[in-house]
Amino acid sequence: MSATATTGASAHRSPGDWALKVAPWVVLFVILAIVPFQFPSFRVEQFCFWMTLAIAACGLNLLTGYNGQISVGHGALFGIGAYTTGILITEFGVPLFGATVASAVLCFATGILIGLPALRIKGLYLALVTLAVATLFPLLLEQFSAITGGSGGLQITSPQLYRGEMRERPIRLESPVAGLENDQWKYFVFLGITVVIFILSRNLIKSRVGRSLVAVRDNEVAAESSGIPVSQVKIVTFGLSAAIAGIGGSLFALDQGQLYPSSFTIVLSIYILVAVVVGGAASIIGPAIGAVFYGLFSDVIVQQMPDRIQPARAVILGVLLILLMLLAPGGIVGGFRTLQAKWSARRSSALNSGPDPIV
Amino acid sequence: MRDFLQILLVGIGDGAVYAMLGLGLVVIYRSTGLLNFAQGEMAMFSTFIVWTMWSLGLPMWLAILGGMAGGFCVGALVHQVAVRPVGDPHEKPLAVVIVTIGLFLGLNGAAQLIWGTLDRSMPPLFGRGQVTVFGVAVAWQKIGAVIVLGVMVLLFYLLFQHTKLGLAMRAVASNSESASLVGIPVPRLLMLGWGLAAAVGTVAGVFIAPNLGLGTNLMQLTLIFGFAAITLGGFDSLVGAVVGGFVVGALSSVMPRYITIFEKMPLAPAFILILAVLLFRPEGLFGKKQVTRV
Asked: What average pLDDT does the structure give for chain B?
């Protein structure tokens, strides 16, 4: 799909086309930079949550969108990232973003572990196993309540200077920049991490490794016979995907400051999947668009509805998922690409149509 | 020993319910080849229909029949509008998974919209009484579950082996293309299969609701138990679902009792079972071996 679009554009490349390509990104970054100054603090906090969701969706997209391994259990990996961060900070005094790195590493290892059985268990059956993982995860947190705090929750604290003495206090991200509020600082830190992750994923997908991911998805046997180490690719993809989801979870922990098992149920896994599918699976920016869509929908639009009909949120999302699969499996990005392809086809036919073609 | 027997019997009673849910899953797998992740939510939804009719004053058995009819309609409708148009589950697994996940969300939300988020209580179908056999007390409700399961299996057997309709359904399951060539209305039979599966799920829901309280999360754990049952039994085997259901029920009742690490998560043994079977014997105990041609 993207191949046809890019060849269409490169056929007659001009400075105008280049500007057309860069301009949307410039506009996007300007908007992203202005946003935290235009909205009240609670909205900025919500944007931070959307970013953690976008990161997790980016990880899931690598695995499911590009590599074709279905996971309905990324909420659990997100949760492992979150709890690792919380426990490392509270129990072991690890610095905040050091814990994020450690969470990514641990989730990478977990992903590898899940990836091994996934070599044999495929398609619908892998979906079943991951669904079971997602259902089991909150129970696991309750079972090991000695370290996770169980349903009472985990308060993430670190030793901080308070009224002249060191005390265990709830963590917070303090802004080192005068003129930036704490939440605005957090927004920019999260935004930086999110952008870096999306750019790295883009580079990965455009690389040789990325092409082998897609080759494995499209036809395993053909990939194998053209020399792609299929098992390695699948396992490492699972690891990377899990690590990225774990970073999302880690930021979620830093964002919330407290963790409860009820935040990591099957529903979370489903919402991560919603972000991928609505935005557009197998497109880099799709999961980010999907996460923003989900955020706008559930934090802004649904909040306008009376309490009684708020469960309609799930109904609307469910119906939307089904309709997307039936009408536009490529999600928002896929739909946009189709429109773009139509438009550029019309434009090029307009350009080429000097005398009418002889039929 | 008596203690062990007691726990085992409780597990077997639970297992009968997992088997009921499993039967529905198998019927759907056999006819449409997909794992229906929304099966639990369909059962939850129709159990709420039973509750509504019962609380309006209908006798319980009539309410259950009504709920089964309602469930049948939900299942048939779901197949017609959502599942069939997506296409072959083994060619497009992601699309099918997403559709069933969409159904999961949609049905769960719809139930919350209609019935609210408070848990309702439902009386056990066979009362709260117990009977003591060899010094072990067994609730009538558990015995009832096993009997109802037996009746269900008998009905399924009669349907599939001794009626024209059942023969046609088996033809669709074994080769839908050839079936349609000999004039069998395949789509209508698939719809019937989905309706049946949902109706069977209703009964599972009716048995679970008195224990857990009837809420919109009613079936989320039970669904995984049901899947464990059919994974062990073989995804396409009705007998397998029953045997698998009993094994899963017994394991998840006995193991948390004696192994402390499973104490708060009876789901863990079921999960380990799913993983182990899929890894080492993907066709389960009674399932047909799947051969993929390259």
From this structure: 90
pLDDT block averages, 10 residues each, chain A of length 359: 44 69 88 90 92 96 93 95 94 89 96 90 90 93 90 87 79 80 90 95 93 91 91 94 97 93 93 92 91 91 84 90 88 86 79 52
Secondary element (H or E) of residue B138: strand B136-139
Which residue in B has a C-alpha nearest to residue A326's C-alpha? B86
How many domains, in total, are found in chain A? 1
DSSP characters over A99-158: HHHHHHHHHHHHHHHHHHHHTTS-HHHHHHHHHHHHHHHHHHHHHTHHHH-GGG-EE-EE
Task: Yes or no: say if B125 and B63 are a contact pair by the CB < 8 Å rule.
Answer: no
Q: Which of the pair, B292 or B274, is modelled with greater confidence? A: B274
Q: Say what the pLDDT of residue A204 is.
A: 94
Q: How far is CA B117 from CA A83, B108, B110, B111, in A?
A: 28, 10, 11, 9
Cβ pair B98:A273 closer than 8 A: yes
Q: How far apart are CA B191 and CA B224, in angstroms?
A: 24
Give tens-digit pLDDT for A123-158. Answer: 889 999 999 999 999 999 999 988 898 888 999 988
C-alpha distance from residue A65 to each of A216, A245, B9, B63, B89 (Å): 12, 14, 45, 45, 17
* Strand partners of residue B138: B131
Q: Judge whether A68 is closer than 8 Å to chain B, CB to CB.
A: yes
The reply to whether A91 falls in a domain is: yes
Contact check, Cβ <8 Å, B282/A270: no
Strand partners, B154: none
Contact B99 A221 (CB under 8 A): no
Higher local confidence (pLDDT), B63 or A178: B63
Select from B11, B110, B225 the least CA-distant residue to A131: B225
Picking from B93, B265, B278, the nearest residue to A136 by CB comes out as B265
**Angle, in degrees to the nearest 10, between helices A74-92 and A123-143:** 30
The parent domain of residue A62 ranges over 41-265
Q: In this structure, are residues A264 and A137 in contact, taking their beta carbons and an 8 Å threshold?
A: yes
CA distance A55 to chain B (A): 20
Secondary structure class of A165 (helix, strand, coil) = strand
**Beta-carbon-side half-sphere exposure of residue B178 (alpha carbons within 13 Å):** 6
Helix residue ranges, H only, chain B:
2-32, 39-55, 60-78, 93-115, 140-162, 164-174, 176-181, 186-212, 220-233, 238-258, 267-280
Write out the two tokens for B47: 């159990």
Instruction: Characterize the bridge pairing of strands A157-162 and A165-170.
Output: antiparallel
Would A208 be classed as within a structural domain?
yes
Q: Do the domain assignments include residue A146?
A: yes
Cβ contacts of A88 within 8 Å, gap of 6 or more: A94, A98, A99, A102, A103
Let me know if residue A133 belongs to a domain.
yes
Nearest chain A CA: its distance from B89 CA (Å) = 8
Q: What is the pLDDT of residues B16-39, one digit of tens each?
A: 999 999 999 999 998 888 899 999
Other C-beta atoms lying within 10 Å of the C-beta of residue B258: 11
